[in-house]
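Hi R.,

Here are the chain sequences for the assembly we discussed:
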Amino acid sequence: MLVFEKGAPGRGMQILPKCDVETVSFGEDVSRAEAPRLPEMSESEVSRHYSDIARRCHGVNDGFYPLGSCTMKYNPRINEVTASLPGFTEIHPLQPENTVQGCLKAIKDTEDALCAITGMDAMTLQPAAGAHGEFTGLLLIKAYHEARGDKKRTKILVPDSAHGTNPASAAMNGCSVVSIPSDEDGYVDLDALRAAAGDDVAGLMLTNPNTVGLFDKNIKEITNIIHECGGLCYYDGANLNAIMGVVRPGDMGFDVVHLNLHKTFSTPHGGGGPGSGPVGCKEKLAQFLPSILVEEDADGLHMTKAADSIGEMKNFYGNFLVVIKALTYIASLGAEGLKEASQNAVLNANYMMHKLKSHYTMACKGICMHEFVMDIGDIKDATGVSAMDIAKGLLDYGIHPPTMYFPLIVHEALMVEPTETETRETLDHAVDVFIELAERAKSDPEALHSAPHNTVIGRPDEVKAARQPVLKYDFAAE
Amino acid sequence: MEIRAELKYSKSHEWVKEDGDVVVIGLTDYAQSELGDLVFVNLPEEGDEVAAGDAFADVESVKAVSDVYSPVSGTVAEVNEELMDAPESINESPYDAWFIKVSDVSETEELLTAEEYEAFVQSEQE
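And here is the predicted structure of the full complex:
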């Protein structure tokens, strides 16, 4: 039942405080003709309504959530404590800088820490999420080439294993996208890359480890090929959780990088987040950064602007309280702790992969990084049970499905990323469930075609939802 | 899987029909069954130039978005806009659900005959 179908006229609650400023009425020219049809509900109805919705969802607090490429790690409660401190919450973005020195220090400390982690020289915290960071990073690359009078660079090279946002961000930036194939082992095909590199290439977008969970062993050669043709290298930080404190994108030869604080740095992912996608760059691009830069001198901390800034990517300073949560995480773990987190993320993924590889075909052989991709193609050929069916089957065991049908180069892909914050018992249980589902695919495929059976919501008609989406409540139908 | 003898085929799974001065392009039955239920189609506009080997449209299924490639170079003479409202027609009758008609064709990729395409699909499945 939707909230509009609940409550009754005249019902209400007392939780809103009295208005403590003078009320003003607007003229008829700006007032709406009819009052909005807001639901009128008692406090207990509202409370039950949202609890009911929560029961229909699966969050990282409900159970294992191995959604590949999304790094659904635990969000420590202490992050919420610091982000709720009045010094961070009861401020206004236009306050004079001498009254928000603590907030500026938090921004500066976060920028410095993220620069140290990525091997970059400067960082902006303004972008609101990963794809927004990609767009920002590509604008920096464009500004760099244009400032040098190099206007012929319109191509962005993207490996075919890339996140879908990469080509989309490049297209948003007015660039044409050239897809670079992977070789048989899942790495960037160097010959194809060399053939595509030229004086019309603005840059390359790459994530390393890549989307099949492999660290590209040729990474230095890849970034060299791009630099030699005059292009720049963009690092998609989606998979940074595999390498934090171990190796830095800046040392691999990348010039620009975005991070997902809502993945790697334990701030909430999904459910409204909000996200945060800081963008770091090497010195040669710093003059183009958006937003403010925080500088420190003897008088304290100051907000400055980059000399040739690309402009504002978002209002004010980005999702500031999310940045506070990420800073809390970085400060809680410290340099050694961050490194250990990545090592355990890689260990957990390899532990699961090793236990599952005699039951499922792995897309790539050998050791994986923080995630691994299973190819359900052979199970589907033999039993008719697809990656989708296995994913739905997991829901009956209180496990969120892995990422499905991605990367696109594996047709029946299930991409599993356990993260470092799961216990061995949780991993063992998930492995048992995966094995059971592989057995059931053989013994009772029909049961998997119709799974899940024990959840509040069964199998929604995704095709109908996409073809005929109902996006608003129809009051007229009442 | 239906492969029509009178059509030519590309290795990226488009069918091609020569119809007088124009070339008609659509997605094969094999392509639609691999993609699954289609829910959205992005088409070019009349008058757009297409180049052999380049994407001219994309189709979205519940699983993923995929490019549709043009096997010929030329000018888009006509667009089947009915697909926008009825992407399911590509699943239901792929050889009637044409995407575009191309005129002033200057270049054509090497295309497969029905027998060659059938063998190609077999080899892809292995």
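Residues 114-125 of chain B form the longest helix (12 residues). Chain B touches chain A through eleven residues (CB under 8 Å).

Let me know if anything looks off.

Best,
T.
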